[in-house]
């Protein structure tokens, strides 16, 4: 059975190249149904790091949430040189987070859905709203559009050229 899910994407090391490559690799496992605009934002608590480029991809998959996270997203991160350390704010080649999976609410070690960062980080909420305007986050009464964070562009810089390029790549892979 196919399910709609949302992937939060971010990178601050060769960001455009790594995001495009992650997109290509992910297309081997799922259908990428929509791509948000891309936004540049400063690294959290790391003013010495490069800015991040963030976006959200709406996907359709038959994989289970755990399989999608462990067997696909983590594998792509590793393939693109992501090294996980104890520093949650470390620079990264690619960050692929499963932020929503259908209407599921999951709380287990290594997998929390919906991702609690949706309601705390505008670099997730703003692009998520672009891909799912009528979304109700599972376990919440409010629609995503009713959450102030999803309209807060503070610190986000729209990256028009890269957004357009990524959307053209997506359209060529999924012409429907």
Task: Describe this protein's structure.
- The strands form two sheets. Strands 1, 2, 3, 4, 5 and 8 form a six-stranded antiparallel beta sheet that branches.
- The protein has one domain: 2-Layer Sandwich (Alpha-Beta Plaits), CATH 3.30.70.
- The protein contains four helices and eight strands, in the order βαβββαβββαβα.
- The mean pLDDT is 94.
- It has 176 residues and is of the alpha+beta class.
Summarize, please:
This protein is an alpha+beta fold and 176 residues long.
Q: Any descriptors?
A:
six-stranded antiparallel sheet; alpha+beta; 176 residues; 4 helices
Q: Would you tell me the overall average pLDDT?
A: 94
Looking at the structure, what is the overall shape?
Answer: globular
Number of continuous helical runs: 4
CATH topology: Alpha-Beta Plaits
Please indicate the percent range of residues in DSSP E strands (runs of 2 or more). 15-25%
What does the radius of gyration come to?
15 Å
Oligomer: single chain
Helix content: 25-40%
Question: Can you tell me the CATH superfamily?
Answer: 7,8-Dihydro-6-hydroxymethylpterin-pyrophosphokinase HPPK
Major sheet description: 6 strands, antiparallel
Structural class: alpha+beta
Low-confidence stretches: none
Count of domains = 1
CATH class term: Alpha Beta
Order of helices and strands: EHEEEHEEEHEH
Distance between the termini: 20 Å
Which second-level CATH architecture applies? 2-Layer Sandwich
- Strands, count: 8
